[in-house]
Amino acid sequence: MTAPGAGRGAATGRRLAIGIINGAFRPRVLGAWRVPPGGPVILAVNHTHNVDGPVLMGTSPRPVSFLVKKEAFVGPVGSFLRGIGQLSVDRKGTDRAAVTGALDILKGGGVLGIFPEGTRTEGDFAALRAGLAYFALRSGAPVVPVAVLGSNERRGRLVPGMPPLRSRIDVVFGDPFTVTPEGAAGGRRTRTALDDATVRIQERLTAHLKDARRLTGR
To answer: What domain range is 86 assigned to?
Structure first.
């Protein structure tokens, strides 16, 4: 089981997100049954808009704890994010506290959400950081690729910087896969092993995104 505080917080966050996301938008969820119903899982999500995290929290079949940039943890917002089970991470270097917290989530059988590109991009998984590969190799948890499509829609916006209210946002879950060390690394979590795993993960995520776009027509 997950650590009590993190588990309860993420469950509370999920309940809040379900209400907010379903009230503001029209999420369409495809393939949620692919998320393992128990045990550690990593959700690897493309990222084009700040709303992507809350959208996934409100559409995932299980509570999710995300690694969130530390800049967001300011004042009451920081307290709120911690209260709903989210983890602060310093993206400028190796944040050992964040790494430990994320591994604890997985060790406890919880769900860790990661934007593998590290920041908002075109959402095409074009440049992955090594963090996802590290957590997958270290924990042995299956990785579920997730495509969030439509959150960056600009037409018809009433609130600047937000997707149009009541617009459709598609969330497509892919088949889970595990990551194992290969090649010259000899099974160790070396830089070579991480680089190799990152390439293989990128191939899987890119293929899922292509399938999700074909499936949704987006």
So the answer is: 4-216
Cβ(38)–Cβ(109) under 8 Å? yes
Per residue in 182-211, pLDDT tens? Answer: 643 444 567 888 889 999 999 999 999 999
Specify the pLDDT at position 184: 39
**CA quadruple 67, 72, 73, 74: dihedral, nearest 10:** 180
Three-state secondary structure call for residue 81: helix
| Tokens, residue 5 | 């505080």
Q: Count of residues for the chain?
A: 218
pLDDT at position 189 is 63
Tokens 């963090």 belong to 131
Nearest to 218 by CA among 154, 169, 176: 169
How far does the chain reach from its first CA to its final CA, in angstroms? 37
DSSP element (H, E) containing 20: helix 4-24
Query: Three-state SS for 99?
Result: helix
Work out how many domains the chain is built from and give that number: 1
The DSSP 8-state label assigned to residue 185 in this structure reads G
Enumerate the β-bridge partners of residue 26: 168
Beta-carbon contacts of 86 under 8 Å, excluding residues fewer than 6 positions away, are 9, 10, 13, 65, 66, 68
